[in-house]
């Protein structure tokens, strides 16, 4: 035997984890190990042992046949239990932009997703985790006890080497089929295909010109896939099983799962059957479909299985297992449609029975005899394919690795000899203990859990195993007042002076990012990305990224960043950090009212948090508090003043609030004071822009913005918005040439992208059209091309939804407006109350129902503050109302509105319009 390889170059196996198997289960646990270690800064060596050329695929996801699809919707196939949309987003960024969570992706694509996600996790953990890939099989595992009682594993490999590891995770997947059911003379025949997934196994049956019929033994999902692969004109694919049932089909438009009203835990098997039948009957009567009833049992399946006696489990497997599997593990709709076509054209036939015998014919083909309820049946076939699926009894396995563990007592057969006995995934030995650092997940736990072979279950187990493996090596979390217990550690602080649970380098990058956000300057996202690259376990860095992705349109995977933030906050954060992560979580995942309440609580406890204050006050960048009464944001600014003193940042926000109150002189003084202290303060300049606009000082306002944009504002993160303000002055001055020039130089697509183009460029174009200031080709289509479809038709916030509606109206896109209205009706309360009726009014405008449009917009104006943003931004709706009033012939109402506006501020454009309406 070869001598053991060293586990690492730094020492004898103190932190080496071997993951045996690199299919789906192995990839999932390796991803969790790498990411958890990177967050916790736990260095270790990871051995991935599997002969496959690429990790992540295994048998299930190596198929190249595009007809082979996942039998679980893409929205439930994420690698991460806390980020269910991850796989869907991956598909969208890898060639399938229109995919939805209810779609059924190709199995090969899922294998690519697993491999890519694992590769990214390994790259992100560089410097913490050392990864070695051993492309061979593990054939044995033997344990020795070290001085002090710790255990060490020696893994024997098929290529003759051995490796040592401190911990072992067995991610071997389902047991291979043994074909023990097949007659002896069939097992030795080259027309018998024992493993249809083996490379080249089906080649002979797929050769051109070969049309012999085929018998598939088994009628489950494997049989369905192989039947589609072997299908061809002139061939009949027979499938046979004891029950003769094919899997049921998923619904094309599935309904939500329906929870069983009756507690099922602890019932006898007979009572359980009766309760489940009643549950399905109720759901059928209510929904007309049995699927929601079966889906509603999924969360409690493991609990029910655990409550059964051994005899009841055996009876269930024997009498109910097949029926359960055909209804629980269903075909994708497209697969069901293909199978239906095959059956209708007699290219696929299903039989209830078992294969009794097989004999060779002179031409090499086979004659098989089936025993069926209707008597013997003989079929001439070219091949017999074993599609019975994996074996249930791991104790019968021929796998040398599992055999060695069972033989030496390191593993114990599970209930009914299915799988192995574990304690939350950690293997029990023959003595019933779990002293060895040896875990498994997925199919080997079937005896204990019954349902444990699907990704939604395995990914949760992978996270649990990763935490269990790394917990003993993880240093204590930082307490709120310092470093690890028993040692005083000076923690770096953020821009507001709050201690951070990270190291100095990551804190420096984070401070730079926050400073950029507070000044409304570019570069925040790269700095925040650097902070989490330096420390993947830094909760505030991830949370800030999620925040600017959600509210500022930054190029951030919001769901992933938020999941990372929440996970890191659980592992290493103090009260201040956990509170901020909760704020971001609620703003992203919950109704606006929940997000506002969390933000107010956070500022009550931490009034000096400048970033949270920026989020709360809707000046620019963030949507702010959904301030329906118009005073909450002001009260927050005034209440937090003592914590900020005379800081330029707080003064900038107070200036903005004062102009919102109409106290323009005071606001101007405060803005100038803040700009004197920090000339790059975007918030102060923004307040000053509003002061000039609302005061009707359009010429001075344009000139001041021009100077600031040319100097201190050159690095501004929202230059387009300041250019938009300057363009509003030019519209008021009726300087149409300047408006066109500013569009071309500062606001056209190519200069502005994404949400910013939608909010500033799109709304400016619409206002210019309403004002008669835009002649010739109207480039709104270019604006729409820069905005992703989900932002246009499925916006996350009411503020973005408002501007989506404006842009779609400007583009005369009536179908798009209707889709946006449908989204708004299903979204949060503000979108339901404001955006949905706004879309309806804009539809009236496009269809020239002017009276209806004006009436709808008049009703909406009082509700508009709820969408967030400034009065100047929301004014576009009033401009649209004025246009509708004039078009409807209600000139007196339009004159009244214009006169009221002119009483508040001067505007040459409004004055000319009023004169024209009065003549």
TrEMBL record:
Residues 477-498 are annotated as: Disordered. InterPro entries: FAD/NAD-bd_sf (IPR036188), HpyO/CreE_NAD-binding (IPR038732), L-asp_N-monooxygenase_NS-form (IPR052189), TPR-like_helical_dom_sf (IPR011990), TTC38 (IPR033891). Transmembrane segments: none annotated. CDD domains: StaR_like. Residues 18-173 form the FAD-dependent urate hydroxylase HpyO/Asp monooxygenase CreE-like FAD/NAD(P)-binding domain. This is FAD/NAD(P)-binding protein. It comes from Streptomyces endocoffeicus.
